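QA checklist item 7 of 12: single-chain prediction sanity check.
[x] sequence parsed
[x] length recorded as 144
[x] structure emitted
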Amino acid sequence: MPTINGYGSVTCLRIFEAHKVTVTTDAIDVHNGKGIVGDKHYDELRPISLLLQEAATWRDAQHEAGLCSKKFKENIRIDGIEESALIVGDILTIEGASLKIIAEKHCYDQCPLYDANRVCPMKSGGYFLMPEADGTIHVGSRVF
């Protein structure tokens, strides 16, 4: 599997402990085949969500929300890697953890912005990952 060509860094980490209970933290532990320790989806084979910092900044500045604007919550936010460098099937290495990019976030037909052919604040920059190797990720960790 190819790895990402470039370097970035982690700018934000979140654990979703329960419905509407989000903890922003300085570090997360990821386990292969299980997810983020302490996350409500741990051991459910649900992917970890990632958002590029540029996309998060743009999303947060929009006055009109789409379907995903409030639904898509990232576990990991990174900066310094171009979106074109993130390809489904590639491996992101963040500190000691390896995470496979399994999908890009996509738009939904049910979104009123999509249906009206209007600009979506979540059109790009979102990804879903599965841990390939255990590790601890910190805010500031190098991404490659």
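[x] summary fact logged: Residues 8-143 form a domain with the M1 Pyruvate Kinase; Domain 3 fold (CATH 2.40.33.20).
[ ] second reviewer sign-off
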